[in-house]
Amino acid sequence: MPDYPTALGASTPDTITLLGRDLAADVMGEVGFGELAFWLATQRRPAPGEVRVFEAVLAALADHGFTPTAIVTRLTYLSAPDSVQGALAAGLLGGGSRFLGVTEDCGRFLHDVVAGRDPLPCDDADWDELALETVRARRAAKQLIPGLGHHVHKDGDPRTPRLFEIAAEEGLVGPHLSLFAAIGRVHPAVLGRTLPLNGAGVCGAALADLGLPLELLRGFALLARTAGLIGQLAEELRRPVANEIFLSVDLNNRSIPPVPFTDAGTDGGTHG
Amino acid sequence: MPDYPTALGASTPDTITLLGRDLAADVMGEVGFGELAFWLATQRRPAPGEVRVFEAVLAALADHGFTPTAIVTRLTYLSAPDSVQGALAAGLLGGGSRFLGVTEDCGRFLHDVVAGRDPLPCDDADWDELALETVRARRAAKQLIPGLGHHVHKDGDPRTPRLFEIAAEEGLVGPHLSLFAAIGRVHPAVLGRTLPLNGAGVCGAALADLGLPLELLRGFALLARTAGLIGQLAEELRRPVANEIFLSVDLNNRSIPPVPFTDAGTDGGTHG
Amino acid sequence: MPDYPTALGASTPDTITLLGRDLAADVMGEVGFGELAFWLATQRRPAPGEVRVFEAVLAALADHGFTPTAIVTRLTYLSAPDSVQGALAAGLLGGGSRFLGVTEDCGRFLHDVVAGRDPLPCDDADWDELALETVRARRAAKQLIPGLGHHVHKDGDPRTPRLFEIAAEEGLVGPHLSLFAAIGRVHPAVLGRTLPLNGAGVCGAALADLGLPLELLRGFALLARTAGLIGQLAEELRRPVANEIFLSVDLNNRSIPPVPFTDAGTDGGTHG
Amino acid sequence: MPDYPTALGASTPDTITLLGRDLAADVMGEVGFGELAFWLATQRRPAPGEVRVFEAVLAALADHGFTPTAIVTRLTYLSAPDSVQGALAAGLLGGGSRFLGVTEDCGRFLHDVVAGRDPLPCDDADWDELALETVRARRAAKQLIPGLGHHVHKDGDPRTPRLFEIAAEEGLVGPHLSLFAAIGRVHPAVLGRTLPLNGAGVCGAALADLGLPLELLRGFALLARTAGLIGQLAEELRRPVANEIFLSVDLNNRSIPPVPFTDAGTDGGTHG
């Protein structure tokens, strides 16, 4: 028989362990939820400072009001109120490249620059040099820089300086955040205009500095969003708007003629 | 134009607020993730003791090893590694009546008994009386009691006494937990055998005592599970087993004749 | 090793079979898609008349314009254009009790009445008698009758007489459709007003008469809707509206104060 | 108020139209399901030959036995039997780059080669020349050729010649199929070995020749698979295996020690 090992949850008739600890005695009541999520993802118990940075990232990404994901969860719950899991899953499915992807894209982009670089820059001037080279190369390749620019917070995303501050307080500014900060300083000279470092991007940098798996950075944005979507459902229960949103679209439903075509099959369908 | 109010996330070019607070200044770095999830769901900031009970529940439900939801997430990631959101959503879709539903069912069941009862029982003897009446009524109606019994932990689920203990430490044993405990004491006299109060059930009782919306109790189980599924994906990245699981099913694929039938359409399909 | 039999798809290096037939030689080019879907669900090849009724049902359920499911699919595609599977899955998740459930509810309801009844009524007068008894019993139990009534087509759903007509042409009016028709005739005398037999309901009756599994009647509505949602995505590609829908909700986003509360935790969060 | 036009489904109290036709009179009973799916996606009614090729593609992709998607749907139904929509959606979420993506990748790849080429090759020798150039360019760029090779059908995928045959019978061999066939003829000379043209690839070529939107080729594979997954659920109802699959994984669950780590947070978690 095949044998599938796991270091996560396991149980016998008398015991339940999680990550090799006694779940009841050593995890419940002792480990916060953000801490546990970090631990599950890395199989390494984080230090309190790491938990604080991690939870700051989750807070930054939890809810942004009526995003498409929030609307989707509310509409799905309207249609299928018997399935909370379906409403949450539907909302998470919008967590792809465009809306929640910046966090992952930015973390990976920064990692591609710093990975394997030895020694790493050791002061701001060195980071600025590396950042300058990086921004120039992206510009030459006509590629955008992930994490740079925001359609609303044009003069600065308030989450960005705050996350730098928290990471600095905890001694957790690593190479990804350092490079991201340097990009913020040097890009105007190359691009000819000043763009903000956005919140999703700085979150990606911070998660990468925490050593979380790059393939799953989007997953942490989704974990944060799950809490936000539950908040959306709770608000929908107290103050429903999904039906009104639906009707605002549907009542405007004006039938238009289909696109012009040569009706090749007019004379006979399959059952004609 | 319609107008959709929300008290969750909101932003202007200069500010981002969440739950009416300044996200960067007052939430990031100040509010833990479990605390934030509670706050989003209730629009009420929980006290530290409430957070501790809530996070103990989330820990209890986060991961149980190779459950169907864990296998589903790993197999979906194997098939579509470009979509972490799809792998997580697929896993959550198993969070229905059978595997994750006990938490919600138990919370609702207890609530149906205590809701509107005034005054509530004020000591164990009174709770035992109410519990006895409740268990007898379910038995007479040939209905199971949610949260009672476990297929593995037949002599006691270790999470149950621990969660009662934590709730007691925090002064948060309310009517739902009280009734659940009483059911644990009195059911043997009615049912003729002793069954354990299971962990999913006690979690539902604790969440209901915290005042979380009953309609969304399953949602908190899903939030906990999201963290667990990210852990499953992280482990899959380090030590893949999904392909082996798939092959263990598929290599056994033995084609069998379809069920016997009268082939009414043998002489002509739609394109015959 | 365990051994999982299936009569559906199977392959060897040289052959591919589906439902026990040679896929390339006997299915491709020979079996229409509606016919194949029926065959997969029943493991019985349907007669041409059965295919015609089945496909009429699928046509009736494929698309109803800007339903919540259609909006959800378009918004999810807007957010995550890299994942067509996510956009379709999100739309299908709205296919629950409220919007797509009538088909299944009606089929099951009719089945509960006729199942095991031997002999079945043999003429309209007998069916009317059974229908009268059924409608009275539901009314006495204060239960609605699935498939009766429509919020838009108050004077009659055009799909209903047409599906009866097609079933009659194919000699496929069985007990479920017969009872449903009788309910249409007798309910005004009991309820004191005339309600239309709706299209979703008659589809459920027709699917039940075709012998399709009752547990999966909702599945056929979802199959039909999958085709509709692909149509929605195709139209979105040619003439996008999802971003405009999103903005019509979000631009109206007016931050409101959270619900009043006693801020039990003001003095200290988990990181205070 | 915004105004969202659609040419798909629309209704008034008295009428229901689909694609500008009267749904009851002109679509139900007159239009097959494959035909309707094509029509919805293109807003052009297909000719009977186009329907036959399209439905042959859907048949080729509907079910391949115990694929990960099939296992996922069965396991999700085991966990949450109340939500057929969740079980189907979970299965579809595996329809990503690896398992169902070849159809789309191959169609796009062929399209990139032939798009804008004027005049197109007009005989096999010309197609072979273009194919040779294409295969050489991919090899030089160290890129695989989508649709070439199969892990089981190493000596030929039986679906491929059959789909070419059907397309030829219907006069629907266009540039995509022509180029794909030429790649099959010329690649051994470049690659030094003979690989089969696989079924998923030829389906992508055929769908592209039918003028279906390239962005949605994966969507048609998902439509086909939806029918297959309903078949899987129907079989699961009659002959359940999901619980046995689950247990074959879980009973092998052998707890292993977590990966070694420096337990930075041993001395105090967030609630320590």
Automatic annotation (TrEMBL), chains A, B, C, D:
Domain of life: Bacteria
Enzyme Commission number(s) of this protein: 2.3.3.16
Coiled coil, from the record: none
Gene Ontology CC terms: cytosol
Pathway connected to this protein: Carbohydrate metabolism; tricarboxylic acid cycle
Classification via Pfam families: Citrate_synt (PF00285)
The protein's enzyme class: transferase
Similarity field: Belongs to the citrate synthase family.
Name of the protein in its database record: citrate synthase (unknown stereospecificity)
Organism encoding this protein: Nonomuraea maritima
